[in-house]
Write a structure and sequence with these properties.
Structural class: alpha/beta
Helix content: 25-40%
Oligomer: single chain
Number of helices: 19
Strand order of the largest sheet: 3-2-4-5-1-6-7
Number of strands: 16
Radius of gyration: 30 Å
Length: 670
């Protein structure tokens, strides 16, 4: 528990009491909030329950991230226990959590032990945590055994959580009443010092004679319950005005101290990855990448307005279908309702191998061959990049140690890899790149991504590990089992380790995932959208989300490729694949196949005029500087006897080479 103010708060209330709204108001000052949703989806035909869930989702700001814990009730304690000091978590609510806990699918189970684990996680959690729970103990005793089991379990959970929290509030008819005040300051307040302001988060707030901080949060509704001061909030009150007054019956929560990032060690000379960057956030020693960074968000108005504009265009059919999401994404990231097709595109191919069981079933040296092939301008990725007019940059990343035996990287390597990825994105932005395509070609990347998903989303490794396909096209089940065992052993080895973003990269992710995470963060800072493709890209999206929740809003997923890890991560990140082609050409290549289609959609949406019935102009004659398109009158459609005559035999000519002739191009096959 923090001595500077509250860290954990339990908000109780009845149905429709306003408890969720009040809990959300307590965290409005946080740049990023991890919203832990515990309620099950319920019956699909229960429209009233679906409406409630939709209302909750609609209230959440775009910078918040949502995590579902309905599959395993024990995961809630793990998420809270692994939260870091500068994170903010909102759990809504414990009623849904108890419902899942008592579900027959999770039985037999020790409910008391699970509740005790949750309370202990809250008691030792260094992060800010706000929990919402219904108060059902004031109603009638249920008449059914199941109802009594629910109320008993929820009452026990509320008692344990309330005992572990710094403060407890009861919301009645929208009015909060504090049942358990926050911890007082470490230095006792005397009547003589009651008028001395206490500095909290850079502002000043007067203190009460009891030592508790006076109202400092603009979101608290019982602010008026404190004694009025005779001056402004930053000036001390008149002598004796608070010392002579009776203590207030309700104690207001103090403001939470703003986290000050620690200084990083001085950079090592000659280390290119530790070179400083000019992008924020910065300190004297260089770039600091840490959870809770405030990075820009796309334009929240341009995207919907651009999609609405599509309905007014002069198109003969129903429109672009699901590809209208491309227009909305491009409009939001470009900040305009008429987005343009991406002109300058850069492909970043990350090459880094993972040792140990993660690389089971791969041919030694195959990933290095693919990287060298791409550097030489050969192979599928290079050809697709050339046809799309995209530049290709191959990036070598640190090799990862066997994660089942030891950390994949050191924390210093993780910091360097994150900064290096950030710099790669900066260099692309400085070069005028409008879209980044992220790919990878390392041995063991699928297993590393599965381990990251298991640590961040609670996934089961066998469910997110794709089948191992040999070079001859056969399925290697033995290699797949070795990969599963490696991920399982790595998760067991790190079961008591922190689940912070950097810790996950160090223990499980490896160099390619760390560099990819830095690329996503740097691209977000420079407002450059990223087309992700494959397990490494989505694993980086999961990690970067925990460092800056804004990154996922700058990512676009063209196709899931039929990979289970990509499907799961896309669902958690809120990324809907645009296509369902199930291609497996390698990370990055799948996205480049879809890139011409996406460009065509953007070009068409930007060029088509408004339909004449909606006020658009219709000028049949093209402008002088515009090319005239072919008209039906330019073609002779009349058939005569010569059209049916036998062709004359060809005269002597060059001998056939036996090879299909192809038009010349600037790309040379390898």
């Amino acid at each position: 528990m923090s001595v500077d103010g509250w860290n954990t708060v339990l908000v109780l209330g009845g149905i429709r009491s306003g408890k969720s709204e009040f809990a959300e108001s307590l965290v409005t000052d946080a740049p990023v909030v991890r919203y832990l949703a515990t309620a099950p989806e319920g019956d699909p035909e229960d429209t009233e329950w679906a409406t409630r869930l939709a209302a909750h989702r609609a209230r959440r700001p775009g910078s918040w991230t949502t995590e579902e814990t309905t599959e395993d009730p024990r995961r809630l304690a793990d998420v809270i226990a692994s939260a870091e000091r500068n994170e903010t978590l909102l759990v809504d609510d414990l009623g849904g959590w108890v419902t899942v806990l008592l579900d027959p699918e999770h039985q037999p189970a020790d409910d008391v032990a699970t509740i005790a684990e949750l309370a202990e996680a809250i008691r030792t959690c260094p992060a800010r945590v706000v929990l919402v729970s219904p108060e059902v103990g004031l109603s009638l005793v249920p008449t059914t055994p199941l109802g009594r089991a629910f109320t008993d379990a929820l009452g026990a959970a509320n008692r344990s959580v309330a005992d572990a929290c710094d403060a407890v509030a009861l919301v009645v008819a929208g009015q909060p009443v504090w049942l358990k005040p926050a911890a007082s300051a470490t230095t006792p307040t005397t009547p003589d010092s009651a008028t001395t302001p206490t500095v909290l988060g850079g502002a000043t707030a007067p203190t009460t004679p009891g030592g508790a901080t006076a109202p400092g949060s603009a979101t608290a509704s019982n602010r008026a319950a404190a004694p009025a001061a005779t001056g402004s909030a930053t000036e001390p009150a008149a002598t004796g005005s608070l010392a002579d007054a009776e203590p207030t019956p309700e104690v207001q929560l103090p403001e939470v101290l703003t986290h000050t990032p620690p200084a990083v060690p001085a950079q090592e000379p000659g280390n290119p990855w530790a070179a400083p960057t000019m992008a924020l956030p910065m300190v004297a020693t260089g770039l600091v990448i840490q959870p809770g960074m405030e990075l820009p968000m796309p334009d929240e108005y341009a995207g919907p307005q651009a999609v609405d504009r599509l309905a007014t265009l002069d198109v003969p059919g129903a429109g672009l279908g699901v590809l209208d999401r491309v227009v909305g994404f491009a409009a939001a990231t470009q900040g305009t309702t008429t987005p343009q097709a991406w002109g300058s595109v850069r492909v970043l191919l990350l090459h880094g191998d993972h040792a140990g069981g993660a690389s089971a079933g791969t041919v030694a040296g195959e990933s290095s061959r693919r990287a060298a092939q791409a550097r030489a301008g050969r192979g599928a990725l290079a050809r697709l990049a050339a046809e799309s007019g995209a530049s290709l940059q191959v990036v070598d990343t640190p090799a990862a140690a066997p994660m089942e035996d030891q950390p994949a990287l050191t924390l210093d390597q993780v910091d360097s890899a994150l900064r290096y990825g950030w710099r790669l994105a900066e260099q692309a932005a400085d070069a005028g790149v409008q879209l980044l395509v992220l790919g990878a070609c390392g041995a063991g990347t699928e297993a590393a991504a599965a381990a990251v998903l298991a640590a961040t989303a609670g996934a089961e490794p066998p469910a997110v590990l794709g089948r191992v396909i040999t070079d001859s096209g056969e399925i290697d089940d033995a290699a797949w089992m070795i990969r599963c065992a490696a991920v399982r052993d790595a998760l067991h080895r790190t079961r008591r380790s922190s689940r912070g973003a950097k810790d996950i990269l160090a223990e499980l992710g490896g160099g390619d995932v760390a560099v990819a995470s830095g690329v996503l963060l740097g691209a977000t800072a420079r407002r450059v959208p990223v087309l992700i493709d494959g397990p490494v890209g989505v694993a980086a999206g999961m990690v970067s989300r925990d460092l800056a929740g804004q990154t996922r809003h700058w990512c676009l997923l063209a196709d899931h490729g039929g990979h289970p890890a990509v499907r799961l991560a896309a669902d958690v990140l809120g990324l809907t694949p645009l296509l369902d082609l199930r291609m497996d050409l390698g990370e990055g290549a799948n996205a480049l196949v879809a890139l011409p289609l996406l460009r065509s959609v953007l070009a068409l949406a930007a060029a088509l005029p408004v339909h004449p019935s909606l006020g658009g102009d219709e000028d049949p004659s093209p402008a002088a500087d515009e090319p005239a398109y072919a008209d039906a009158s330019d073609f002779d459609t009349t058939l005569d006897e010569s059209d049916f005559a036998e062709p004359e035999p060809a005269g002597p000519g060059p001998a056939s080479t036996g090879v299909d002739e192809q038009p010349a191009s600037g790309w040379r096959a390898g």
